[in-house]
TrEMBL record:
Keywords: ATP-binding, Lipoprotein, Nucleotide-binding, Transport. It comes from Desulfuromonas versatilis. The keyword Lipoprotein applies. Gene3D superfamilies: P-loop containing nucleotide triphosphate hydrolases. The keyword Kinase does not apply. This is Lipoprotein-releasing system ATP-binding protein LolD.
Length: 221
């Protein structure tokens, strides 16, 4: 269960203060798949970064399975995030110099898993996302859809319970979008993941369990 209460985020810059999130309340059940939709600038990415503890709110709280995540500090917060949340970004952010296998291993190596264990887990996940024959390919040698599959495998390498995806199909054509949806569905069935997915794709949003509309830093009710 994810419980978000009174979340606000303001940035201050040259042109004064910008209130990007203005008091978001949202509960998401374990295993639920939620689409976050809204116009550009509504605050979706900012919200996702805070929900996944990549950024701090100005005020408000996020409880994940009972843990008040912003009461954790430093290494404890990093550990909680690495073990609990996996991220998939629109522009997948794979490291171009490294193979698919090495990209997926990376979070496990950073978490000090042994290279053998990291490689075994990465291989298993790449096979699960249909990339068994592409383990040694570098991102530049893979299609957009394949790169996104690598990014999804990487997000899952630490066996998180929550998957946060920001426009996971944003730069893909409709057939590849459909394939990524089917993969996410398969992973949801297999791992019981809670999924929060920011998307502009009505097709993708419509297939999830619930659609949350964000508008001007608030959830539209
Ligand atoms: N670090 C920052 N400093 C100042 N303003 C910021 C910062 N990050 C985001 N913003 C502003 O917050 C607003 C919301 O941005 P955000 O990326 O969360 O929106 P979004 O709904 O994800 O948009 P899109 O669909 O275009 O990705 C924007 O007006 C943006 O300029």
């Amino acid at each position: 269960m994810i419980e978000i209460k009174g979340l606000t985020k303001s940035f201050s810059g040259g042109q004064g203060q910008v209130d990007v999130l203005r008091g978001i309340d949202l509960n998401i059940a374990s295993g639920e798949r939620v689409a976050i939709v809204g116009t550009s600038g509504a605050g979706k990415t900012t919200f996702m970064h805070i929900a996944g503890a990549l950024d701090h709110p100005t005020s408000g709280s996020v409880h994940i399975e009972g843990t008040d995540i912003f009461s954790l500090r430093g290494a404890a917060l990093d550990r909680f995030r690495n073990q609990t949340v996996g991220f998939v970004f629109q522009f997948h952010q794979l490291l171009p110099e490294f193979s698919a296998l090495e990209n997926v291993m990376m979070p496990a190596l950073i978490a000090r898993k042994s290279p053998r264990e990291a490689a075994d887990r990465a291989r298993e996940l790449l096979c699960e996302v249909g990339l068994g024959p592409r383990l040694e390919h570098k991102p530049g040698q893979l299609s957009g859809g394949e790169q996104q599959r690598v990014a999804i495998a990487r997000a899952l390498v630490m066996s998180p319970r929550i998957l946060l995806a920001d426009e996971p199909t944003g730069n893909l054509d409709s057939r590849t979008t459909d394939e990524i949806y089917r993969l996410l569905h398969q992973l949801h069935q297999a791992h019981g993941l809670t999924m929060i997915i920011v998307t502009h794709s009505e097709t993708l949003a419509g297939r999830l369990d619930r659609i949350v509309h964000m508008e001007d830093g608030l959830v539209r009710t």
